[in-house]
Amino acid sequence: MTSAAAKPILYSYFRSSCSWRVRIALSLKGISYDLVPVNLVKDGGEQFSAEFKAVNPMQQVPALKIDGITLSQSLAIIHYLEDTRPNPRLLPQDPKKRAQIRMIADHIASGIQPLQNLSVLKKMGEKKTEWAQNCIASGFQVLEQILQHTAGRYCVGDEVSMADLCLVPQVFNAERFEVNMGPYPTITRINKALLELEAFKVSHPSRQPDTPAELRA
Asked: How far apart are CA 68 and CA 3, in angstroms?
């Protein structure tokens, strides 16, 4: 089997929201893959090992080996999957909807998630929960307003898109940090609808090979 034809390998951590985005995309597109867990907290973080640095010099998950190349950064991976395996589409043909989807995905992936990422929280000490709550709430205030104009059943209209792949993991983080979701009814409604879909269920952090027993569904 050539490297281009080999089964994809996803380096992932069960609770990584960036990894979860890619797991959803792979599931939606019916792409079978092997998963290699990378524990971000054990022994100071396995992502900093020489072995994993050889896979991904960024020392982050996810990383995906596919078609003979290794990619990191969740949105770059999803864009590649969309370009090479376009069905079902996660970005519609309509340029206005595509722009709205990218706007929402970028807002979450660049404007919310990095501010409450593990590397940042480590530096916040005892204030890490308060910091995470404030960062997520600030981002969700904006997102709720945007979704009131773009949403149908999901983030943009009635088809699952890349924006939805970013939304669900971020709501999971919000609930983990006990963010009050009361002010965000649109986000809450969309998240509930998405979690009913099989691709979002099988990719859930509670159902991964590296999920600790006490957190399993």
From this structure: 5
pLDDT of 1 over the 70 cut: no
Q: Pick the closest to residue 28 from 197, 172, 209, 206 (CA basis).
A: 197
Q: What is the side-by-side strand order in the sheet with 34-37?
A: 34-37, 9-12, 63-66, 69-72
The pTM of the full predicted model, rounded to 2 decimals, is 0.93
- Interval 116-156: pLDDT, tens: 566 666 776 777 788 888 899 999 999 999 999 999 999 99
Q: Over the Cα atoms of the chain, what is R_g?
A: 17
Distance CA 164, CA 171 (A): 11
Residue closest to 118 by CA, chosen among 38, 209, 23:
38
Long-range interactions of 75-84: CB distance < 8 A, separation 24+: 75/21, 75/105, 75/106, 75/109, 75/162, 77/22, 77/25, 78/21, 78/22, 78/25, 78/162, 78/165, 81/25, 81/26, 81/29, 81/31, 82/162
Concatenated DSSP letters of 126-139: GGHHHHHHHHHHHH
- pLDDT at residue 118 in the model: 65
